[in-house]
Design goal:
Largest sheet: 2 strands, antiparallel
Distance between the termini: 30 Å
CATH architecture: 3-Layer(aba) Sandwich
Structural class: mainly alpha
Order of helices and strands: HEHEHH
Strand order of the largest sheet: 1-2
Helix content: 25-40%
């Protein structure tokens, strides 16, 4: 993706046909439209214990899955600004999917 300035029309043309990442929940996918559009930033907020981290872990795993399983067959990058990333939890999530 280029860092050049683009018009809204050019952006629309460049993003037509984008892939969407499923949350594996029809209800959530419906809230987001078709799921989460790749190469975008989506902010998830909520109270402590609402499941934000669990959803983020699930999405990180889903993105690595092949398209026939709802994934994008892509790599993921996790940025942990609070130092609370749990490799055990992400491995559990990956093997549980």
């Amino acid at each position: 993706m280029s860092s050049e300035l683009r018009s809204a029309q050019q952006y629309l043309e460049d993003t037509t046909g984008d892939q969407y990442l499923t949350t594996m929940s029809n209800d959530l996918d419906g809230i987001f439209g078709q799921g989460l559009r790749q190469a975008t930033i989506t902010e998830i907020s909520g109270e402590t214990g609402a499941g934000k981290t669990q959803l983020a872990f699930q999405l990180a795993v889903n993105a690595t899955l092949p398209p026939d399983k709802g994934g994008l067959n892509k790599n993921t990058l996790w940025i942990d600004s609070e130092g609370e990333f749990s490799s055990r939890r992400i491995i559990w999530e990956f093997h549980g999917s």
